[in-house]
Design goal:
CATH topology of the largest domain in chain A: Rossmann fold
Number of helices of chain A: 8
Number of domains of chain A: 2
Oligomer: heterodimer
CATH superfamily of the largest domain in chain A: P-loop containing nucleotide triphosphate hydrolases
CATH superfamily of the largest domain in chain B: MetI-like
Largest sheet of chain B: none
CATH architecture of the largest domain in chain B: Orthogonal Bundle
Structural class of chain B: mainly alpha
Radius of gyration of chain A: 26 Å
Largest sheet of chain A: 6 strands, mixed
Strand order of the largest sheet of chain A: 6-7-8-3-9-10
CATH architecture of the largest domain in chain A: 3-Layer(aba) Sandwich
CATH class of the largest domain in chain A: Alpha Beta
Strand content of chain B: under 5%
């Protein structure tokens, strides 16, 4: 019996099928990455695990219990940090801790919050408001908030996609370090295969939408702790990256369709200055909308 | 060098130029077109006793200007707080519940454009039973119901504008309803609410003059009306200036308060 399990999950919005036949099972303590194109439905997938969305059909189960609503047993790091701007770093995390451990003594809760602030190296920014922090720091607060709830599963929804490449690499190392320390079950959603391979035990591609589904999973057998520089030359790493990229591009390439679009130009006629002007100044046969030609354009769907 | 110095002072010089322009035009107007209109120096002469002894009380209507303004402000404050007390929760309900919005919106849209002059008689009639306090309650009612709408509408817009992210956080943390209200909804709406509060205060101050004129309660508004009846036209201008300046000061204060609640 897997720890976190999605079975035949489908979800559609407004008649468009976004996700179909999602089957996913994750063991306790596993770090799984899901890679997909932007707009493929990655966030929808993770929202069904958080419980913010319910699947149209199929089931999502955690610990053999069906997920019906959000709860603090699943810590989420949202794509856009989602910190409350009127609270300081400390208060943002405290809100979560107070909610999860209402029975603890105040001192214990404070200490707990401080511990997680220290864990993400933000002690100097303890009393700052989110707008005073850089993107990377905000994301670390968000990670600390999720971890401080001591959830059974940590869900990371493209946590680093809004950051610059250097900050991103730094935070990847930090996530890797934190994960090694307490071995939580982690689901990482990302659009960067390298990030997924570098961090995860197992990486699963999500095909291009609409009607996206999960591809075969790739086990990453690179021993930890992983070294960023060494990994780049690792043959296994390159092999997985090649396989995943090929799989994802293939899933996208057979989705070209032709649609017909009518070009609509403003219904006015450009003036030809070389022609002799008549009294009214107009040409004999004005160009009208209906005389425009139709063109076919190839688009990605 | 000299130009630089001038540029630094233009915050002071340019308003002065405007002021001088208006005073000159005022002199010209009272000298030519409207002989009854007192010119600025005459206005100053009639207003002087009210300004020099701002808290004097020489009779029921003959009082120092700040004392008169104090009466008006006290009434405005009461009406304004009633407006906030009713308006804010109403706004929250409108923002949170679509059903309630559909139910209440047409009524609000119809009541909102009604003039204070139209509400006052109704207010007086409503509180006929209150005996000699009827005037007070009627004026309060008028101020409250006129000043309420900006608060109601801004709060409702603010609640609807709360980013889904904040609500998701509340859901994931499983905050209770009251906690969600106090930890997420209210802080997120505060900037909008204060914009509403500021507009409401402006309207409350507008309404006071009309309310005092009609009810005859002592204050700046009734002072203005009495001086018109006494053909003391200088004091009409003086009252108008007083009302304007107080309104401006109130607005400044509110915008400072509002600025403190702007979340980045």
């Amino acid at each position: 019996m897997a720890f976190l399990e999605l079975k035949n999950v489908c979800k559609s919005f407004g008649g468009t099928c976004v996700l179909k036949d999602i089957n996913l099972s994750i063991e306790k303590g596993e770090f799984v990455a899901i890679v997909g194109f932007s707009g493929a439905g990655k966030t929808t997938l993770i929202n069904m695990i958080t419980g913010l969305l319910r699947p149209d059909s199929g089931t999502a189960k955690l610990n053999d219990l069906e997920i019906t609503e959000p709860g603090p047993d699943r810590g989420v790091v949202f794509q856009n940090y989602s910190l409350l701007p009127w609270l300081t770093v400390f208060e943002n995390i405290q809100l979560a801790v107070d909610q999860v451990n209402p029975n603890w003594a105040t001192a214990k809760r404070t200490e707990h919050v401080e511990k997680y602030i220290a864990m993400v190296n933000l002690a100097p920014a303890r009393d700052k408001k989110p707008h005073e922090l850089s993107g990377g720091m905000r994301q670390r607060v968000s990670v600390a908030r999720a971890l401080a709830m001591d959830p059974q599963v940590l869900l990371l929804d493209e946590p680093l996609s809004a950051l610059d490449a250097l900050t991103r690499a730094m935070l990847q190392d930090e996530i890797s370090r934190i994960w090694s320390a307490d071995k939580k079950t982690v689901v990482l959603i990302t659009n960067d295969p390298d990030e997924g391979i570098y961090l995860a035990d197992r990486i699963i591609p999500l095909t291009a939408g609409p009607g996206a589904t999960l591809g075969p999973s790739f086990q990453v057998e690179i021993p930890r702790p992983r070294d960023r520089k060494a990994v780049n030359h690792d043959d296994h790493f390159k092999q997985i990256r090649r396989d995943i990229t090929t799989f994802m591009l293939n899933s996208k390439s057979n989705r070209h369709t032709a649609i017909t679009r009518k070009l609509v130009l403003p219904d006015i006629e450009p003036e030809d200055l070389n022609l002799p002007r008549s009294v009214s100044g107009w040409r004999k046969h004005p160009l009208r909308k209906r005389e425009m030609e139709e063109v076919k354009v190839e688009v990605d769907k | 060098m000299k130009e630089n110095w001038l540029k630094k002072l233009d915050w002071l010089l340019l308003p002065m130029v405007g002021l001088v322009g208006v005073i000159v035009a005022w002199y010209a107007l009272s000298a030519t077109f409207s002989k009854e209109l007192p010119n600025p120096s005459q206005t100053w002469a009639t207003a002087k006793p009210y300004i020099m002894e701002p808290f004097a009380k020489r009779g029921e209507q003959d009082q120092g200007i700040l004392r008169l303004a104090g009466y008006s402000l006290r009434l405005v404050a009461c009406g304004y707080f009633v407006a906030l007390l009713i308006g804010t929760p109403l706004g929250f309900c409108l923002g949170l519940s679509k059903t309630f919005t559909k139910m209440a919106d047409p009524i609000i849209q119809v009541l909102r454009p009604v003039s204070p002059l139209a509400w006052l008689p109704l207010g007086l009639a409503l509180f006929l039973g209150a005996g000699k306090n009827a005037l007070d309650y009627g004026a309060l009612f008028t101020i409250a119901i006129c000043a309420m709408w900006p608060t109601v509408l801004n709060t409702a817009v603010g609640v609807r504008a709360i980013p889904q992210d904040y609500l998701n956080v509340a859901k994931v943390l499983k905050l209770s309803r009251t906690k969600t209200l106090f930890k997420v909804l209210i802080p997120a709406t505060l900037p909008y609410m204060f914009t509403g509060f500021r507009l409401s205060l402006g309207i409350a101050w507008l309404v006071i003059v009309a309310a005092e004129m009609l009810t005859g309660k002592t204050g700046v508004g009734s002072f203005l009306w009495n001086e018109y009846n006494n053909a003391n036209y200088g004091n009409i201008i003086f009252s108008i200036l007083t009302i304007g300046i107080i309104g401006y000061v109130l607005d400044r204060i509110m915008s400072v308060v509002e600025g403190r609640f702007k979340t980045a």
